Amino acid sequence: MPKMSRETLKKMVEVISATRSDEYDCQLCFDQLQKFVELDLEGKDASESFPMVRHHLDSCIGCEEEYAALIDALSGMEASLA
Amino acid sequence: MIFSDQHMSTQIVQKSNQEWLDALKEPISSEALEELRATLLRGLRAALSSRVDGDIDALTEDFVQDALLKILKSIDSFRGESRFTTWAQKIAIHVAFSELRRRRWKDISLQTLIETPDGDEFTPAILTDSSTSPEDEATQSDIMNHVEKLVNEELTDRQKTAMLAMIQGNMPISEIALKMDTNPNALYKLLHDARKRLQSRLLESAGLTASELLAIFENK
Predict the structure, then answer these.
(1) pLDDT higher at A14 or B131
(2) pLDDT digit string (tens) for B9-34?
């Protein structure tokens, strides 16, 4: 395995530091995402109600991407109905 | 829920969750199906327009078609904890992005990601941030050296590959899983186990808490 760059090692330290003993995997996060997103769109603190979802989104590129896209999709849907 | 379109003096009536469920279970209402299809198309277009180049109409049509099949198949799993359309849109987004990720990453091998450093070559002597004091820089370098040693000594080859693909290569978990012939949840567990092991060893040897460790690298 080649030597890791400083950038990679820094990210690795961040990832290691943020690790919790209990975490949601992608499926668990996905199962609760609709509730999380609705709270978000209502201007409420979704992270407080669903901290495990927030934690997963902070560390999973794929799920974070889908969350951001879902926000745009729902905002787009509401805008076209208004 | 009723929205009033002031310009056209019409009212658009949104279905309740129960109305959706009643209309989409056998015998399925074709009108409801078409309404759902149009709703998902609107949402998907809004989501993809800033993320995908070129004509997205054909793309979104295909994705919505696949999503509708999944939604109808799993309709009994909808628990009513959100609006039905939110739940359905989530599935449509997942269908779309799963396919887009597959296309984006299909020709990129794990080996390529792992063997190509993402930034400058690791040289402890290089100070990349002038706002960090020399002492802090030295502490950071020590920790990073140690992390590299732990990664090489404590993780299995499979764990190392997955960690580097994710952290260095920014490859999503679903794609790493595909290339490693496993499923995303199993891969997540593999990575979680790796991270917990590294965290435990690192905190033990550095004598720090996780938040203290993070603070050393924050705003630096």
Answers:
(1) A14
(2) 444 568 999 999 999 998 999 999 99
**A53 interface with B at CB cutoff 8 Å:** no
Nearest to B140 by CA among A58, A59, A11, A1: A11
Q: What is the reported pTM? A: 0.87
Asked if this assembly's ipTM is beyond 0.85, the reply is: yes
Domain range for B42 is: 2-105
pLDDT digits (tens, 9 = 90+) for A22-77: 999 999 999 999 999 999 999 999 999 999 999 999 999 999 999 999 999 999 87
B86 and B119 inside one domain: no
Q: How big is chain B by its Cα radius of gyration, in Å?
A: 24
Structural domain ending residue among the three candidates B40, B72, B105: B105
**Closest partner CB to B119 (pick from A7, A34, A70):** A7
Q: Is B64 helix (H, G, I), strand (E, B) or coil?
A: helix
Q: Cβ of B16 under 8 Å from any chain A Cβ?
A: no
CA angle A69–A79–B94, rounded 5-degree value: 20
- Give chain A positions within 8 Å (CB) of B94: 30, 66
Do the Cβ atoms of B120 and A5 come within 8 Å? yes
Q: Is B134 on the interface with A (CB under 8 A)?
A: no
